[in-house]
Amino acid sequence: MKLIACALAALGLIASSARADDQVEVKQGKNDVRIEKKHTTSRTKHRTKVVSKARSRPGGGTVSKTETTQEHQGPGTRDSKTKVTETKERDAQGDVVRQEKKVQH
User: Fold this and answer.
1) What is the structure's pLDDT at 69?
2) Which residues of the chain have pLDDT under 50?
3) Domain range summary for the chain, segments of one domain joined by +
């Protein structure tokens, strides 16, 4: 279960290319991983936060939930905030039983 949470967190870091002036914080627990990345270019601020949790299901299998929040703030532009919640349920053999993805703007 810890492996799934770490893999999802690593995927989030790899998907967003790291720059030299980025501030990246990684906090890892037994069944969850939190990643916070901040980036500033001139007067524009970008912030990405990934929270990944995994738990076991009764009868075998796992449920993993990943929440990704992206915020962009800049002068003269409309600030944006996007939240993506992804839930995957796997059975004891590792096959995906249910997959759900929600996007909020």
Assistant:
1) 94
2) none
3) 2-104
